[in-house]
């Protein structure tokens, strides 16, 4: 993987807010850093699993159902590694449909697997937590979580941590373990450094300079694995036309994979893009989240063509979420967002040890 710069000490990856008066809620919130690889535009978090003294990078997958996926041979080296046996309570909870052998001896030797056939095991994961308003990390207070591994040797992109709204994801396990409210917040850095569980919102239309871009039927997906927002072809073409017509910037030759580019030395006169959501809410996308700098003289509209018949007409990618604090209320199925933090003279690349 190409070299990257670790941009900060702390940046929110997930923040669980708890009622501080709850007798069981010793952990009032969890905090963990995100790193961005500029060469791939992939977001990852460093984690040390079990007794390992070194950390590995796990790609952040907002819609990933697997809590954490790594190589099984590596996982088994941990002195705190415990395979989850077939028929155990954890196995029944993780995968109720896993077929256990009838033979008692064989059953005890059989390792439980997840619905996607990954091995299930239990190990400790140290995470930053807050108690009485102070963030710290204590290996003796690591959370014992149900994790998954594969027999192959996963690449960085295959080594993932899933944050989907499923009962086995790490957020769900922590919420259940510490009796926390079912909320998760995510703040992506812009600098380097059965139920699907996917996060879906209802975008009714896109507005640019008073012109409305209609949306085809279908839900909008939010994904940290898509570097840029992906649009169905007709939406993409309409967006490019509306943006170009309203942009007070000189047009430059297009640079793949983008369809509209502009000269950056002619001033910034880009229009604001408004995603109009159900209920009247508006997600406003400013130039810092709409224009990608491809070289010192050219910026491009950071949206790409997803084809004629994609699964979702819109997939909001990581670039459009950078420096926006977004919160997922898992219990109420609600999505909240701050719009660009740059407007408030801060960003997700700023070290901050207290909740927003």
UniProtKB/TrEMBL annotation:
Which processes are annotated in GO (biological process)?
Answer: proteolysis; xylan catabolic process
Q: Which InterPro entries match?
A: Aspartic_peptidase_A1, PEPTIDASE_A1, TAXi_C, TAXi_N
> Which keywords annotate this record?
Carbohydrate metabolism, Glycosidase, Hydrolase, Polysaccharide degradation, Protease, Signal, Xylan degradation
Q: Where is the signal peptide?
A: 1-23
Q: Which domain of life is it from?
A: Eukaryota
State whether keyword Transcription applies.
Answer: no
A GO molecular function term, named singly, is: aspartic-type endopeptidase activity
Tell me the ranges covered by the Peptidase A1 domain, including all copies. Answer: 43-338
Q: Which PANTHER family match?
A: ASPARTYL PROTEASE-RELATED (PTHR47965), EUKARYOTIC ASPARTYL PROTEASE FAMILY PROTEIN (PTHR47965:SF103)
Give the protein family: Belongs to the peptidase A1 family.
Protein name (record): Xylanase inhibitor C-terminal
Source organism (scientific name): Arabidopsis thaliana x Arabidopsis arenosa
